[in-house]
Amino acid sequence: MYEYKVVSFRESLIGDAIDNDKLEKALNKQAEDGWQLKAITSADVKGRIGPGAVEGLLLTFERARQA
User: Fold this and answer.
1) Residues of the chain predicted below pLDDT 50
2) Which of 39, 43, 44, 46 has a CA positioned 20 to 30 A from the CA of residue 52?
3) How far apart are alpha carbons 42 and 2 in whole angstroms?
C-alpha cells in the first residue's frame, strides 16, 4: 500500500523563473520524510493574496504507507 502527497510550488510574482535551489530544497525536505517524487506538473497555483493564480508546479510524492 502507498500514500500520496501533493505540494504546490510557485514563485511570488508572475513571470518569475523557478529558483532551482528552492525547488531542490523542497524536494530534499520531502525526501527526508521518506517521500519519493513521482511527478512534476505545471499548473496555475492559487496565490495567497487575491483571486488570481500564478504559474507554478504541483509536486506529487509517494511513499509506502506506514502501519
Assistant:
1) none
2) 39
3) 24
AA letter at 42: S
Cα dihedral 33/17/46/62 (nearest 10): -30
Q: What is the pLDDT of residues 6-15, one digit of tens each?
A: 998 876 655 5
Report the pLDDT value the prediction gives residue 16, as an integer from 0 to 100.
Answer: 59
Q: How far apart are CA 52 and CA 4, in angstroms?
A: 27
Kindly report the CA angle at 8 between 63 and 37, in degrees rounded to 5? 30
What's the Rg (C-alpha) of the chain? 13
**1, 66 contact by CB (below 8 A):** no
59 burial type by CB count under 10 A (0-12 exposed, 13-18 middle, 19+ buried): buried
Q: How many CB atoms lie within 10 A of CB 57?
A: 19
